[in-house]
Amino acid sequence: MRTSVRSFASSLVAAMGVTLLVAPSASAANQVVSDKYSGEFAYATSQTRSPDGCIVAQRDLLAFDKGFGPTVAYYDFMVNECTMEVLRDVYGTAPAEAFDFNRNAVHAKASVPLTDGTMLAVDLRWNAVGAPTQQGFSTRIVEPGVYQYVSTSSGSFSEASLSGSPLFDEAHISQSKGSRLEIRH
């Protein structure tokens, strides 16, 4: 689950296309980056490991609406962790043909062109399992005179069952919002 959560966070940020605002501060040596997001997300993931523990394959799919219009993003990655050789790195995004969202059920449909030249047909339904939980996170990192980072996020999160195509091992539904401030001196 730890890998899935870490993967979810990185997929979420990458797929959302977060708009960054870069504003110079009073000192030309400082760089300030801040962003905010809010949205509705349905996430699916699968991870496998070879019997010898070397080959790890991870597939992630994220259907979301961040205000730019419903989008589906897919990522398929395989690595040999014993040799650090990347065996597969395929991804793609596309506007959703259908995206019906509520806290208990999500339907997403899209034809996603992938970087390997293939097309992925997505037609998935997420159904929440149990009541959503409310979660909030904050992170603060300070290295005086060098770097400051503050991040907050909050929202509802539900585990979900998944039907349709392609299938994954885990599924989640989330509504969230957050912000980030990063200052480099």
Short summary:
With 185 residues, this protein is mainly beta.
Explain how this protein is built.
- This protein is mainly β.
- It has one domain (2-184).
- It is 8% helix and 66% strand.
- Strands 1, 2, 3, 4, 5, 6, 7, 8, 9, 10 and 11 form an eleven-stranded antiparallel β-sheet that branches.
- A hairpin with a 3-residue loop joins strand 6 (98-101) and strand 7 (105-113).
- It starts with a helix and ends with a strand.
Secondary-structure content class: mainly beta
Dominant shape: globular
Q: DSSP strand (E) fraction? A: over 45%
What is the mean predicted local confidence, pLDDT? 82
- Using DSSP, what is the number of strands? 11
Helices and strands, in N-to-C order?
HEEEEEEEEEEE
Number of helices: 1
Spans of 5+ residues with little confidence (pLDDT < 50)? Answer: 1-28
Measured distance between first and last alpha carbons? 36 Å
**Major β-sheet profile:** 11 strands, antiparallel
If you compute it from the alpha carbons, what radius of gyration comes out, rounded to the nearest whole angstrom?
A: 18 Å
The total domain count is 1
Helix content: under 10%
